[in-house]
Amino acid sequence: MNEGWNGAMDDGTNRLGWMLDDALRMPETRYAILLSADGLLIAHSERIGRDDAERQAAGMSGLQSLARSTAEFCGDAGTTWRQTVSEFDGGYVFLVAAGPGAYLAVSATQHVDMETVSFRLQELVQRLGKELSSPPRPSAGSPA
């Protein structure tokens, strides 16, 4: 497993899903997933089922890897990748770095305000970074 995230879905609780749902309050957004660099699903929004989210996480992992490998096309092989936006007939997919070894992907319709989505995703990444770097809280009432 990747360092930098604590296996948020290992127990099937999708404990960070509410944060992704919050991001989808923007008009014209569809789905959100949080994934590890190796394509494992960390969390998903309520609008997408776990099986579909896992399949998309694997694909997004490949997309971010491809984007990182083309950094020198920007003039320097050491350039830091920050975001990829893919356009399709029906809309866009935004893929952003969300902390050490984690990525956030959001899909939206073709009518979305792209600037607003990019800004809100950066805000969400800041919030997620805190969650991904802190250990999960122990359950109340569990034996010590």
Automatic annotation (TrEMBL):
Pfam families: Robl_LC7
Domain Roadblock/LAMTOR2: 17-108
SUPFAM superfamilies (UniProt xref): Roadblock/LC7 domain
Domain of life: Bacteria
Record-linked InterPro entries: Mycobact_SerProt_Inhib_Rv3364c (IPR053141), Roadblock/LAMTOR2_dom (IPR004942)
Protein name per Swiss-Prot or TrEMBL: Roadblock/LC7 domain-containing protein
